[in-house]
Amino acid sequence: MAKRTKPASMDHETVISDKFRTTPIPESITKITGLPTSAILYKCAASSYWQFRVFLEGAQRKRSTKQVELLKAKDAAKVIYAEMLLSVHAGETKAKPSSAKTLQVIANSLWAKNETRMLNAELNKSKVSNDKSVYERHIKPFFANTDVKKIDTDMLDEFKSHLAKQKLKPATQLSYINIVMALLKQAQIKKYITHVPLKPKVRVDDEARGYFDDADYEKLITTAKSVVGQQYEFKSKEGNVYRRITITGELPLLIEFMVNTYVRPTDIAMLRHKHVHEVEQQGIKFIELRHPATKRHNNHMMGSEQSFTSYFFVKSYQKKHSKAEEQDFLFAPDMENRDTALDMLATQFTAVLEMAQLRQDDQGKSRTMYSLRHTAIVRSIHKGLAIELIAANSRTSSEMIRRFYGSHVKSVRHMGTAFVDKELVAREQRIEQLKAKFDMTPPPPESLFDD
């Protein structure tokens, strides 16, 4: 029986298998004068061009010369090698060049890293959970098994268009793109890619949550008190019930407490009675919250003049259930899992919004439990408190107050009496000057709006 001929010694142009299409044809391997001994030119069955290969920075690197003539290929190889050396000096060739790494590999690495950051209180657990959910639902299906090296600015722009076609708001698009950028940054840290591509630009206008004006707040709190003990059913568009929740006596207490203390919903999950302190200023009793830092702010938060009464009712309610000790949580003290406790309270709040038909404000902005904090801050602006004072007391920045919370204030008339007080002083000074000059008091002008 005749011995089977090895693929390498057969006619490479006609019978070579797919497995060897990129393998150098032995007869074509050519050294290049002036370059390292590892630098070679060769041909393979997959291309009519000469290919350049060199061992550099601990890895074998390949590139097509785009030339079919050997002499021109040698010149091109020297240019290619010079470009590779330039990238070495720029520190770009330290990335792993070999096997493909998909975004899933990077995601696994980033999630593990974030677990450590959560333990160090550098990241919020809910944010990490949300990022994973977004990755599974929107990012992973789009990028599938794409090699992370092939994710460039063009592909990121395509992802942006993909999100826009799903009718997602610009702010949501940007948040999803930021997760992808974090993954790519992790890929660079792991040396799977040499640089992170430019992030697509998404124009995002500041969009404040809805808040409650006095009339809507009165409707909200009245509804919450009237439906205690009732069960609400959340239904799909098809009319199927997918969740039921019973409104507890804690909810109206929670609403009043949040509006009078500036706390975030996430603060509610951690607040214990030991964090609440009674303080007195100018004969008025207030409460001051001294709970652990949130969003890297650790200022004490002093409530409004009604906060003392709000907390009194909360503590009285919990005393009836023997849950008002120093270590007990203010709300849902029976629930050990605080994420579940917050979800339960937030769901009750959403149910009451539905019952009161207050899911959106008059500008169409959605309301959530966070809107209670917005209401507290907007009320302070209405009282004429300085922006810097409000920011310090509510554990946020002056910039955030101006961009988001202050957007609800449409007129200086709603920012306390400071503006009018100054105008009154100016008017009195002007009248005194006229009296001194003309020895008379000028008559008040007629109304501009009289017929």
Task: Describe this structure as you would to a colleague.
The protein is α+β, with helices and mostly antiparallel strands and 451 residues long. The protein has 3 domains: 27-89, no CATH class; 103-189; 214-413, Intergrase catalytic core (hpI Integrase, Chain A). The protein is 43% helix and 11% strand. It has 14 helices and 9 strands. It has helices at residues 70-89, 103-119, 125-143, 153-165, 170-189, 214-226, 250-259, 265-270, 307-319, 338-356, 371-382, 387-393, 398-403, 418-438; strands at 30-31, 40-44, 47-56, 59-64, 231-235, 241-246, 276-281, 284-289, 301-302. The strands form 3 sheets. Strands 1-2-3-4 form a 4-stranded antiparallel sheet, with helices on one face. Strand 7 (276-281) and strand 8 (284-289) form a beta hairpin. The longest helix is centred in the C-terminal third of the chain and has 21 residues, at 418-438. The chain starts with 29 loop residues before the first strand and ends in a 13-residue tail after the last helix. The model is unreliable at 1-17, 92-99 and 410-415 (pLDDT under 50).
Q: Tell me the distance between the termini.
A: 119 Å
Reported by name, the CATH topology of the largest domain is hpI Integrase, Chain A
The CATH superfamily of the largest domain bears the name Intergrase catalytic core
**How many distinct folded domains?**
3
Indicate the CATH architecture of the largest domain: Orthogonal Bundle
Largest sheet: 4 strands, antiparallel
What's the tally of helices? 14
For the residues shown, what is the average pLDDT?
A: 81
Spell out the helices and strands N to C.
EEEEHHHHHHEEHHEEEHHHHHH
Q: How large is the share of residues in beta strands? A: 5-15%
The low-confidence parts are 1-17, 92-99, 410-415
Supply Rg: 34 Å
Query: Given the C-alpha coordinates, what overall shape results?
Result: elongated
Secondary structure category: alpha+beta
How many runs of DSSP E, i.e. beta strands?
9
- The share of residues in helices is 40-55%
Q: What CATH first level of the largest domain would be assigned?
A: Mainly Alpha
The strand line-up of the biggest sheet is 1-2-3-4
